[in-house]
Amino acid sequence: MSDAAKDAPLIAVEDLHTYYGKSHILHGVTLHVRPGEVVGLLGRNGVGKSTTLKTIMGLVRPTEGSIRLEGAPITGMAPHKLARLGIGYVPEDRRIFRLLTVMENLRTGLDRQGVSDEKKQALLDKVFNYFPVLGERRNQAGGTLSGGEQQMLAIARAMMLEPKIILLDEPTEGLMPRMVSQISNIINVLHRENVAILLVEQNVPLTLEASERVYIMEKGVVRHHAAACDLKVNDAVIHQYLGV
Amino acid sequence: MELTAILFSIPWDQIVIQTINGIVTGMILALIASGLTLIFGIMDVVNFAHGELFMLGAYIGVLVLATTGNFWLALLIATLVVALIGAAIQVVTLRPLIGRDPLTTILATFGVSLILQNYALWQFGPVARKIQEPFTGHFTLFYLEYPWYRLVIAGLSAAIIGGFWLFLKYGKYGIWIRATTQDRVMAQAMGIPVPLVYTAAFAIGAGMAAASGVLFGPLVGVNHTMGLDWVLKAFIVVVVGGMGNLVGSIAAAIFISLLEAYASIWVSPAQAVIVSFIVLILTLLFRPTGLFVPTPK
Amino acid sequence: MTKPRNTSYWIAFSIVLALLIIAPLVLPEFWRRFLTEILIWGLLAMSSDILIGYTGMVSFGHSAFFGLGMYGAAAALLMFSPPNLWLAILFGLVASALIALFVAYFSTRLRDIYFAITTLIFSQIFYVIVFTWTEVTGGENGLNFRRPPLAIPGLFSVQFTSETMHWFVLAVVTASYLILRRITRSPFGMVLQSIRENEPRTRAIGYPVERYKIVAVMLSGLFAGLAGVLYAVQNRFAAPDFIFFLVSGETVIFNVMGGIGTLVGPIVGAGFFQLMREFLSRLFGDQFPYLIPLGVVFIAMIIFLPQGLLGFARRWLNR
Known about the structure:
heterotrimer, A: alpha/beta, six-stranded mixed sheet, 11 helices, globular, C: mainly alpha, two-stranded antiparallel sheet, 4 strands
């Protein structure tokens, strides 16, 4: 891949405005993610981080602005088409299919057209390799898994789509502290697989460790944009926007 | 002494007969209710037109039977044709209403039921038609000549429901339907084409209703109002069984049909329907989530 | 701002009322009765609007209230000689109120869809009871009786003519409309509307939502029963067909076509529906299944014109 192509954004969001009913949540969000990049999205509660992810995923329709995937406009496309184009989504509170088994959860992403049986098996093997617990519990109902296991399942399920980018919404929320390092490992795994990640998080250290670049949002817009290493050194900005 | 007297006065032969009758009717009702439950469970739509799909299936069965003379072909074709009609109905009237107040779907399907009913009346007239059983043949049950066909209906309905259950549990599309029923949003995020799944589910439900119509046709006359009684019973079954609960609907269908069958030993069939109403009222009073649903913790 | 709007409303109201008063004098007999029946169905639809339009509860139970109001009146007219109009009204209202209370008790705790189904089932329960209890209700054939005179005992007694019947119905319907209008604008009515808008929030604020709903159902049932009484007096018979849930369904159609939540809309909807039916059967013959095109129009209106004819007219006037 030439350098120019490598630098072209995978996801480019421009001036996004989104409403929930009458509430104006996003006031013109602009950001981009390059192929294989891990990009963090920080901000206090309620600034619109999750809404940004939902809008990119097509779950909420923006009133203004554009979203492009590899240069092609995808604004307003149906979520299931976006999933097939390579956007994976792992929401807050995981939302695995509780009444389906682990295997069936994985199959929702695995059973796609044009994927050979060998490929499917390879994907399953890979995922069970990374998450042995899921392999052990493959015939158990999703609802019987612990919080951390459900988070793994949610991510594994998204990986079944062989996505180009995964939108990760607060993966560490509600997890015990020792699971947080697990999440860190998983993000590294995805990065090694060359899957881009747009990571929304409240956990600042984790985000700064895992990401290459970070956006900081406030009141529905991106207020600051810097390389993660810069922010690690100069944390005044973090204090200013997040009060941590 | 009194015990034996009581035991002798109970009309055992009638009870056995009515048990069989109840199971037969119950299986048909279960088949109808399954379609209704599927549609409600997956897309929160109360399909008022379900009884009319049942009726349409019966009429198409009449037509195919008249031209080909083959009952099983009639069953197959009626199921497929009504499934297609169901898909068309969903796309034209229900898809535009996705995201709107769910009560609009009740009204819309009610409108469809009026259209279908009056269409049938217009095209076929008020006189009832008959579907011939695919085979005659009775066995002696006490003092009755009980037709084999009735048992076959029950068996077939059970088979169809069983097949459907297997499809839901193991098939790829079965997983799609179950995932969509549980979490429509995440199903979409996993690449499942939810609008298509809705249409397919409606079509399947419609097909099941049509199959019931053809199977049940030989037992009653086929006429344009046959849907009304059944849709009402089906609704009661679905509410009593727990809305969206497939197993519950089946259990409720058999339960209510058995009770009604027993009641008809002593009262007229027109009055026996009150049984289902009483069951409904009791369910609403004491276990509104469904008679066969474990009370939510 | 409100004052000129108010006066123009009352002017429009008076004009329409005047037209309706004059109508029987100029219309031929058929259309006279037709208009009277529209008013009666309009009253039924108005009562249904209290639930659908103002409280946000779709009910298929109106046929029960309507039908039992009819039978209540029938009872009074058959049991007492000479037939007494006011007794008929009383019996009809009591019957429908009791039924409404019964239905309300079971159904109001249920949310939307279950409420609709349950009210439908109750309509059918009453249908079956009335249909099969032939000794009391006349079963399938219903009951026939004489029309009572417009009388105040001791003062005067006048037999109804077609015109006076129309004026009587008009008076009752107008009075009902004014009363309902007053109620929907009262604090009680405001609570109903907030239940429609956001039930959990209304409950959270502290309103006993179930009680309000029960009162709404009873109010609705009362006026539906009144419509039943009027129908009985106008037509001199009561039949179980009117309890069959399809009547509720048609009422809901009137509501949707006219515009829910407007009180006037349902009357317009009733009129529109009946006129279209008449028009279609004149054009295509009696056997023409008028419900097919009307059904299509109904569905189209749900999808494209959810505000009904009145909403459409309003938007058109505001252009």
